[in-house]
Design goal:
By secondary structure, the chain is of the alpha+beta class. Helices cover 46% and strands 11% of the residues.
Length: 395
């Protein structure tokens, strides 16, 4: 067979070369090999080696003890960290998620065997070419996600792999091999043991991928019931992402959750320990989803005033707003119409100086003035607004 040559970053070549000079084996492994073969840009480059962590540390000037007990040392090269992990065999899994202990080995194939899917179980070095003990190349060519070894056993060891399978199928546009798929449906209850943060991270990657509609597999395979009641109760039928929708996390989650309404959307995100920024943007989008936005200036300004500009742009796509609303948006932005209290020509301080007592009423007054200005932007002028509020301008 013709030996394939993969282009690796110089730093990775350097690290592998140094380990080899030290008398050890070393390879790029996992996701980076998969992505490179697919012509995708790898997120990170992981290195696997026969060297023990202590030996790795001796060979490099700058290292970080990332997970010594699991065999991982981070090697810093030009300010970027590369994870170098000793060949290892995972011990028995105790909680459906983590191995009780890991053992180091000197056999690369043993290390590849512990990896989740055939396409993630290939190693590469310039000296050897691709090391592919489980026909990962064949599965890459046929666009198949297949477990290394017995799928029931592998998902039984670590239930996170279930979601990884669905996520990779969405990211790569691959289908899940039938025995692997069958095992997912059987092991689905183990999903309850996976931390909500990890579930959220996988679902986010899935939703931000080229095939967000594959999130429906999470329901079809029976996984959703073991994530949270609110999550399981979502309207799963016919979820579609409008074409051209931003791949930002909040945009994709909003597209997915909008039909459930703002309350349920927020409940799901809370269950999944989502960050507050994302949750609040999704709430805004879900509360506007499907609502008619009047295609006239003041109506558009009022709607825009409730959210960040980029969130508004996402709403235009989610609601399929037409040319007229988009044109009005452009105009409003070009003119720099005031859309929030920050840009109101009158501040709380101005009101205090004009004799208004600070407190709830003052807040309401400011809000009222903002509404006046949203209706009629020409009124965003100090004297005019104070007059509107029945106050004397204070010189
Ligand atoms: P990406 O970085 O795009 O999310 P990846 O495949 O690189 O995908 P990582 O989480 O970076 O995923 O893991 C690197 C490699 O470690 C994987 O390619 C796989 O070989 C192995 N791996 C990761 N998580 C697991 C797991 N839960 N079970 C078995 N092997 C795993
Ligand atoms: Mg990776």
């Amino acid at each position: 067979m013709e030996r394939l040559r993969i282009t690796m970053p110089q730093q990775v070549e350097g690290i592998i070369g140094r380990l080899r000079q030290g008398g050890f084996e070393a390879y790029a492994v996992g996701g980076c090999v998969r992505d490179t073969l697919l012509g995708r840009v790898p997120g990170d480059w992981d290195i696997t080696t026969s060297a023990r962590p202590e030996e790795v540390k001796q060979l490099f000037k700058r290292t970080v003890d990332t997970g010594i007990q699991h065999g991982t040392v981070t090697v810093l090269a030009d300010h970027v960290g590369y994870e170098v992990t000793t060949y290892r065999i995972d011990g028995e899994y105790e909680d459906g998620r983590h191995p009780k202990q890991v053992a180091f080995t000197s056999d690369l194939v043993e290390d590849l065997k512990r990896r989740d899917f055939t396409i993630n179980a290939m190693a590469y070095s310039h000296e050897t070419g691709i090391v592919d003990a489980f026909n990962g190349m064949g599965d890459l060519e046929n666009k198949i996600i297949r477990c290394v070894g017995d799928p029931l056993e592998r998902f039984g060891e670590d239930a996170l792999r279930i979601l990884r399978a669905v996520r990779f199928s969405a990211q790569l546009g691959f289908s899940i091999e039938s025995r692997t798929y069958g095992a997912i449906t059987r092991i689905a209850p183990n999903m309850a043991r996976v931390s909500k943060e990890r579930i959220q991270a996988e679902l986010t990657k899935l939703l931000c991928s080229g095939h967000p509609e594959k999130i429906c597999e999470v329901y079809k395979t029976g996984i959703s019931a073991y994530i949270s009641p609110a999550f399981h109760a979502l309207p799963w039928e016919g979820f579609q992402v409008p074409s051209g929708l931003s791949a930002e996390k909040y945009a994709r989650w909003a597209a997915f959750l909008r039909l459930a309404g703002p309350e349920a959307a927020v409940q799901v995100l809370r269950d999944l320990k989502m960050d507050n920024d994302t949750a609040s943007r999704v709430r805004t989008l879900a509360s506007w989803a499907g609502k008619e936005i009047p295609a006239e200036e003041a109506g558009v300004r009022r709607a825009m005033s409730g959210m960040l500009p980029m969130v508004w742009d996402v709403l235009l796509d989610l609601n399929g707003c037409g040319k007229e609303t988009r044109r009005l948006t452009e105009e409003i932005r070009k003119r720099g119409d005031c859309l929030d209290l920050k840009h109101l020509a009158v501040s709380g301080q101005d009101l205090i100086e004009a004799g208004v007592k600070p407190g709830k009423e003052m807040g309401e007054l400011l809000q009222q003035l903002l509404e006046t200005v949203l209706e009629c932007p020409q009124k965003n002028e100090r004297e005019t607004l104070l007059k509107e509020a029945g106050l004397q301008a204070y010189k």
